[in-house]
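Help needed: design a sequence for this.
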């Protein structure tokens, strides 16, 4: 029997983000090398930040299903993958970021055929710079799920909390359609 995941609530942890500048921050990319967020954000970019993806055959952290907003990283990433061309139609590129290792990010990107960069922020440098919300589980500090849209290095829209995750790409597209 499957249990519905707990719904996250808006605790105000992302209220300060609209208008903030995307920092100069280079992170390892699944497409190779380092990607500087400020460079990619000089145009129009959708950045979704997520806790972590699972690996086949590895158990989820203890209590994972009880953490509001923790489940759904794979469906969210696959929805962005499936809408990447639609987002490009608005001139937007897509970036995913988690605190997972570059190897974990690469494995996931290959397994799910993710065509855009997934960035590894193991030290949560973006969280520190922008004050992004995090949580702790099983000895790990992870990002809480949020998505922001930046244009010319400024955050112009924040989706937080993101629920259900698989609808996030469609919500971003609807917002872009209304903002165009």
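Sure. Designed sequence:
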């Amino acid at each position: 029997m499957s249990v519905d995941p707990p719904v996250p609530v808006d605790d105000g942890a992302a209220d300060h983000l609209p208008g903030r500048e995307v920092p100069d921050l280079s992170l390892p990319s699944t497409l190779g090398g380092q990607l500087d967020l400020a460079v990619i954000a000089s145009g129009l970019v959708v950045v979704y930040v997520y806790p972590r993806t699972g690996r086949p055959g590895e158990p989820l952290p203890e209590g994972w299903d009880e953490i509001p907003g923790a489940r759904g990283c794979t469906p969210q990433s696959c929805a962005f993958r499936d809408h990447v061309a639609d987002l490009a139609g608005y001139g937007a590129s897509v970036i995913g970021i988690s605190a997972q290792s570059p190897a974990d990010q690469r494995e996931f990107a290959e397994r799910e055929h993710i065509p855009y960069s997934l960035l590894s922020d193991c030290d949560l440098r973006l969280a520190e710079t922008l004050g992004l919300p995090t949580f702790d589980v099983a000895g790990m500090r992870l990002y809480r799920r949020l998505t922001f849209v930046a244009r010319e290095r400024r955050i112009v829209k924040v989706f937080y909390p993101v629920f259900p995750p698989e609808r996030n790409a469609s919500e971003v597209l609807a917002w872009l359609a209304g903002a165009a």
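The mean pLDDT is 95.
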